[in-house]
Amino acid sequence: MDIHKNARLTPHGRERLVKMIVSGQTPQAASEAAGVCPRTGRKWADRFKQEGLAGLQDRSWRPHRLYRPTPPEVIERIESLRRQRMPGNEIATTVGVSAATVSRVLKRLGLSKLSALEPAEPPRRYERENPGEMIHIDIKKLGKFNRIGHRITGDRTGQSNSRGVGWEYVHVCIDDASRVAFSKIMKSERKACAVAFLKAAVAYYESLGVIVERVMTDNGSCYRAGAFAKACRRLRIKHVRTKPYTPRTNGKAERFIQTSLREWAYARAYLNSKQRAQELPFFIHRYNWHRPHASIGRMPPITRLGLSKDNLLRLHN
Question: Cα(82)–Cα(214) distance, rounded to whole angstroms?
Fold first, then answer.
């Protein structure tokens, strides 16, 4: 409940006021003690006698009846036109009512925004049962720099001095079942680098005892290339591509990219992009071995691989 900062009475204060009156004090004396006029004191005392404690709560300011309510047939006509994706002003002209009336009706119907006509598809979450059944691969393009940028300092003066330094491409990979991630900075996002990263990722998971069976990517040109398909056949990996313009299908990789940007790429003020690249392996190690992951019970991803104590000590370096 929104109480005015200078309000004399809250529901608790009203209850104390009426109890003073019921106990035998005059409405004038009780009202003066509460800092209100006697008329207000009698009003709350009468409400208490009629409705009990429920009568001491705030009431709606909405009138009991409207002077000229919008007819039901007009409301139905407004809703029908809105579902045909007609804008509010055009509805007002067509129906013959004011734009304010149309706005109120649409708000009451929950159709103020056109997006309400096509509700977002509910998320369909999935997770493979065993590590290695599917890995998700994606690429994030980052600009190189030779000085601390405006994203950290907030100062855009001289930001053009770093232009022309170039780009670097962060290839990321994450296992669907365990969330164990692998990432590497490559020279480009072309097929040669995509194939090289796929081989490096498969080797990384093999070092953890995980055999990769499938890989999911988007429809980028490097993943549609024959060289990538040939590499998948040699590695005996089934290649699955997402539905076009549907990045949520590869959502685990997209989410890992967001986490990488927040906790690695833009987490601190690097002097240059080379220093940022040197920090990437440390971030990947912390992500896999130490960072709690919300979707797997706030445990580090490595715990889902079922490694023995000896293997944990061997691999954790």
Answer: 46
Burial of 275 (0-12, 13-18, 19+ CB in 10 A): exposed
Distances (CA, A) of 191 to 42, 139, 187: 83, 12, 11
For residue 57, give both structure tokens. Answer: 């709560």
Closest CA to 306 of 55, 71, 139, 132: 132
> Six-digit token pair at 148?
């601390």
Domain formed by 135-315, architecture: 2-Layer Sandwich (3.30)
For 84-119, what is each residue's pLDDT tens digit? Answer: 999 999 999 999 999 999 999 999 999 998 888 877
Could you tell me what percent of the chain has a pLDDT over 70? Answer: 90
Specify the pTM. Answer: 0.65
**Higher-confidence residue: 123 or 289?**
289
Contact assessment for residue 151 and residue 199, using Cβ atoms and an 8 Å cutoff: no
User: Per-residue pLDDT for 183 more than 60?
Assistant: yes
Q: Cβ atoms within 10 A of the Cβ of 202, count?
A: 23
What are the tens digits of pLDDT across the range 117-160?
877 777 778 888 899 999 999 999 998 888 776 666 777 666 55
Return all residues near 97 (Cβ < 8 A) that are at least 6 apart. 70, 74, 78
Please, which pLDDT band fits residue 1 given cuts at 50, 70 and 90? low
**Angle at CA of residue 42, ends 4 and 66, nearest 5°:** 65
92: which residues sit within 8 A by CB, 6+ positions away? Answer: 98, 99, 101, 102
Domain boundaries, the chain: 11-56, 72-115, 135-315
